[in-house]
């Protein structure tokens, strides 16, 4: 049993964690690491693209989107170069839906965040004010995992430790009939997911999409710290000066 009486091998317990997971009340800091096989992802997008989706150029797919949920089909049809894409960021979350995510390996020095009401993105090396973006949570697949319950059949593998925290390893297999959806998601591209559910909060500590034995994408948290002192400084979550 984990804290709170959750049976680490019980499917209903895992479902309950996913259903109740909520990131807006969390207070934590963590490193984020993500990687995507762009070539494999692009081939999967084209293989399952519905006939009603027009050909065209869109932004490239990157598995778990840093700024929020999955793209539309039209967004994902991209002619950008493929290859292997990875990024590393530092995430800070404060109660009230506040967050700040700094990308550590991008020349532009990109930072995204929200003060709980407005989401924003800032490129330190680009002129002009920050660009406003639609208000939505960061790391959508990790922090809003209840969507797994509708699109996947879950199988609990057992208790694990990740980021120094108790977790539950779960394999998620797409349900049939998910092929024609308005937005891309893992159930249309992968043949299974391997995730680790945090045994206390229900968010995901690790999220891996795979197809035919190959990794499509992986996003995971590391160095998780609860109630870090930085969350007391609300200025960290406010849009930088000059934003609308």
Write a concise keyword list for the protein shown above.
37% strand, single chain, globular, 244 residues, alpha+beta, 6 helices
Structure description:
The chain is of the alpha+beta class and 244 residues long. Helix content is 15%, strand content 37%. An eleven-stranded antiparallel β-sheet has the order 6-5-4-3-2-1-11-10-9-8-7. β5 and β6 (131-133) form a beta hairpin. 36% of the residues are buried. Mean pLDDT is 80; it is low at 57-69.
Secondary-structure map:
Blueprint: H1 11-20, E1 28-37, H2 38-48, H3 73-76, E2 84-94, E3 98-103, E4 110-115, E5 119-123, E6 131-133, H4 140-143, H5 148-151, E7 152-162, E8 165-174, H6 186-189, E9 192-198, E10 204-211, E11 214-226
Antiparallel strand pairs: 1-2, 1-11, 2-3, 3-4, 4-5, 5-6, 7-8, 8-9, 9-10, 10-11
- Strand neighbour order, sheet with most strands: 6-5-4-3-2-1-11-10-9-8-7
Give the count of helical stretches: 6
What are the segments in which pLDDT stays under 50 over at least 5 consecutive residues? 57-69
What is the element string, with H for helices and E for strands?
HEHHEEEEEHHEEHEEE
* Shape call: globular
Radius of gyration: 18 Å
Number of strands: 11
The assembly state of the depicted protein chains is: single chain
Mean pLDDT: 80
Percent helix, as a range, is 10-25%
Could you describe the largest sheet, including whether it forms a barrel?
11 strands, antiparallel
């Amino acid at each position: 049993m984990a804290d709170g009486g959750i049976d680490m091998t019980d499917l209903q317990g895992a479902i309950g964690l996913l259903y109740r997971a909520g990131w807006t009340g969390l207070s934590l800091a963590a490193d984020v690491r993500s990687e995507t096989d762009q070539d494999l992802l692009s081939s999967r997008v084209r293989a399952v693209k519905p006939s009603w989706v027009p050909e065209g150029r869109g932004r490239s797919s990157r598995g778990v989107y840093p700024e929020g949920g999955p793209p539309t089909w039209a967004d994902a049809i991209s002619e950008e170069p493929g290859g292997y894409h990875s990024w590393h960021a530092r995430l800070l979350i404060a109660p009230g839906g506040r967050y700040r995510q700094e990308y550590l390996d991008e020349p532009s020095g990109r930072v995204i965040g929200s003060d709980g009401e407005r989401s924003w993105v800032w490129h330190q090396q680009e002129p002009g004010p920050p660009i406003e973006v639609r208000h939505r949570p960061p790391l959508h697949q990790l922090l809003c995992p209840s969507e797994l319950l509708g699109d996947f059949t879950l199988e609990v593998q057992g208790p694990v430790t990740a980021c120094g925290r108790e977790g539950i390893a779960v394999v998620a297999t797409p349900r049939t009939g998910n092929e024609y959806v308005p937005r891309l998601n893992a159930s249309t591209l992968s043949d299974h997911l391997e995730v680790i559910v945090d045994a206390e909060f229900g968010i995901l500590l690790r999220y891996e999409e795979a197809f035919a034995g190959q990794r499509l994408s992986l996003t995971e948290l590391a160095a998780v710290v609860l109630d870090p002192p930085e969350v007391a400084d609300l200025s960290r979550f406010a849009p930088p000066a000059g934003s609308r």
